[in-house]
Amino acid sequence: MTSRIRTLVLSVAAAALVVPLTALPSSARPAAPADTPPRTGFEESDGAEWTSLEREQEFLAAVERGGDRVAVSTIGTTKQGRPLNLVELGNKRSVTSVLLICSQHGDEPSGREACLTTVRDLAYPKDRATKRFLDRTSVLVVPTANPDGRAADTRGNSDGVDINRDHIALKTAEGRTMAALTRDREPDIIYDLHEYGATPPYYDKDLFDLWPRNLNTSSRVHKEAQTLSEAYVRPAARAGDHSIGTYGIWTDPVTGDPIKQTAGDGQERILRNASGVKHSVGLLIESRVDPRSEAEENDPALNQRRRVDSQLDSLKGLFGYTDERRAQIAAATALSRAAGLLDRGAVYVGGADNEPATPEDTVENPPCGYRLDAAQYADVKDELALHGVKALPTRGDTAFVPLRQSQRKLIPLLLDGRATYHLTVGQPVATC
Fold this sequence. Notes:
Layout: H1 3-6, H2 41-44, H3 53-66, E1 70-77, E2 83-90, E3 97-102, H4 110-123, H5 128-135, E4 138-142, H6 147-152, H7 173-185, E5 189-196, E6 207-210, H8 219-239, E7 244-246, E8 249-251, E9 258-261, H9 271-277, E10 281-288, H10 294-298, H11 300-324, H12 326-339, E11 347-348, E12 362-363, E13 369-372, H13 374-387, E14 392-393, E15 399-402, H14 411-415, E16 427-429
Parallel strand pairs: 3-4, 3-5, 5-10, 6-7
Antiparallel strand pairs: 1-2, 2-4, 6-10, 8-9, 11-12, 13-15, 13-16, 14-15
Protein name: Carboxypeptidase
GO molecular function: metallocarboxypeptidase activity; zinc ion binding
Keywords: Carboxypeptidase, Hydrolase, Metalloprotease, Protease, Signal, Zinc
């Protein structure tokens, strides 16, 4: 990995001069000089404590005040009233955009800490390569995608719902917020940060990653996602002395051959797959929670620092990929969005890139569209709008959803009874 890539996520030496004050209430902490980069609660405790939600709000406010070209906004609110924050960095007019979704699962905090650190480091760029990267890139970050779950240290949100299984139904405030963000900003890349529990000796690497497996992902977008993984994220992780492999695939510890698949399929309701279907180069990253050594067992802070460091090292690969393959990324995502307007080709309601679709999973000749009666349309029109699917109202409060639109391959997943997670069963219309 080149030195230019390694500098894209910076370590801020000046932060070492800040005296840890986590024991003091926020009102008693002296304000740092405007040009001093703020530190997360995790950094102030040297990895002993995760950054609290209150501290996150203070940290983001400080970054926005003192950072360069950074804006923090609230784009949604959880059921328990906590804000869903969006941080925007870099050039908002850039044709290249990257979205980081951090800690959809509230009990997986290392990705969130990496995202907060990255926000700060990009907001206080010091070297020429990072400044040039930001001149050419729009970076969007949702630092805590599940604040209620983080507050309770639970996988699900306050209703116990796994947000990463809600990217089709959009029943949660968190899922709806992310869908609207994806629809409105059309990110070229969506990077989803998680953690996992190891199963030694078959499944115990420091990191795992995986691209969209859903067969409705365009071939160009699929290729770019694999390139992001194999040519950038994995080398960056290894350069940081972290082992890495393919998420959901157990391997023989001696030969490295696959033994069985335990996760990582093509179901469309997971963000990694929904990203690909919606034309973004998606990638899931998972860091290992379990201690890797006796030293980590005896020192939880050491374990937690390793988890965050592995996420940060993988992000170096993401930013290097974004910087070096702008033309290929733009072509892949633009052509994917335009392909639906041609209204050609099969649509798949099952299968994955490593599991060929059966005839039952394949809609070889998709209909012109789906007709919804009044009750169906009333029930799903908000979700269709959040997904960016255009519906044409017709007489009697009914609607027609044509396939000839950008989200062509998503529509059958929402409205066809053969799709596992459909919202409703629309009436197929053969000809227009």
